[in-house]
Hints:
- This is Acyl-CoA synthetase.
- One of its GO terms (molecular function) is long-chain fatty acid--protein ligase activity.
- The protein is of the alpha/beta class.
- The protein folds into two domains: 6-91 and 298-372, Luciferase, domain 3 (Roll), CATH 2.30.38.10; 116-294, Rossmann fold, CATH 3.40.50.
- It has eleven helices and 16 strands.
- It has a seven-stranded mixed beta sheet, with helices on both faces. Strands 1, 13, 14, 15 and 16 form a five-stranded mixed beta sheet that branches. The protein has a two-stranded antiparallel sheet with strand order 2-3.
- β10 and β11 form a beta hairpin.
- α1 runs antiparallel to α2, α2 crosses α3 (49-57) and α5 packs across α6 (153-165).
- It is globular.
- It starts with 5 loop residues before the first helix and ends with a helix.
- The model has no long low-confidence stretch (mean pLDDT 90).
Amino acid sequence: MMxxxxxxxxxxxxxxxxxxxTTDDQQLxxxxxxxxxxxxxxxxxxxxxxxxxxxxxxxxxxxIVSNWQSIPLMPIQGYKQLTLSTTPVQNDEPVFMSSGTxxxxxxxxxxxxxxxxxxxxMKYPFKQFVLPDRDKITILGLFPGEKxxxxxSLSRYVTKAIDFFGDxxxxxxxxxxxxxxQGIVGALKDTERQGRPVMLLGASFSYVHLLDYLNEQKxxxxxxGDSRLFDTGGFKGQSRSVDAxxxxxxxxxxxxxxRDHYINMYGMTEISSQCYDQNLVRLYHHLPLxxxxxxxxxxxxxxxxxxxxxxxxxxxxxxxAYYDLANWNSCVAILTEDMGIQDKNGFKVLGRVQGAxxxxxxxxxxQLLHAKQM
Length: 374
């Protein structure tokens, strides 16, 4: 088959997102997903040399691979060791980099010569899962925005959330100088007084520090109904670890936000799409609550054995494999270092792979490094 150009691939993915933006049943999109994924693998195989070498080490090529499940999974480490880009990297090209908390000398790099697909892949699931009941809301950003940290995918995420869905009272309350606690308190008091729903948007430890401050000041709020708290993930920080239930309780006591209005997402530097807790969308559609995460139609999640990297049965824990059509410029298929468990409704993230569990990861990284020397 004839390999598509970068523009053609992006247009195909963008059209797929437009077509299936509000589709809950992934079976409806399965045939189209498979075709776009195979076209994307062919494009990446031809234009991303490190990925091609790795695929060849797995004895995989577009001539052999006939379904998306067989596309070779690039280990997360590849984004730290290799330049994974289908287009020549320009000096001023936007690049997202991981925080480097695990290995400061090797940070993941994910290059983005265009944000057309990335923005679309962010916008529609955010509306579906985070704002199923309204088009706009007051968003208080508790994570640095894109202007403060242009190399953070989460910073762009927060900025675009406010651009797309924030009303004129929205803003970001943290920058290189730290968190604007007084500004946040003032905004919360305003929304409380006016009866206007608000959404807090930040990383887990944004809330830990904010709650510490409010507790010291003996401040609590009775935020209006339909207010919500959006946590972008991660319960571990450099200062201390926080139990998830303790955080839920503190949020309830401080903001008057119930657990069903608390939503968490799954995302990372190396991918371009996010998955979301389903509780809000199900609540506002009068369905039984479900706190597992759902993927948009252009993402597939599989749970693999930590030993063999083969699929495990439903309800069994394993490594999360992530297939993301929006990752058009690097690798469509990624082997994460996160453990998860999946059922017919969605999946849960159990945390990072540990010690003896990491056999599959170690094998994959060993193969990656061997391919790098080819």
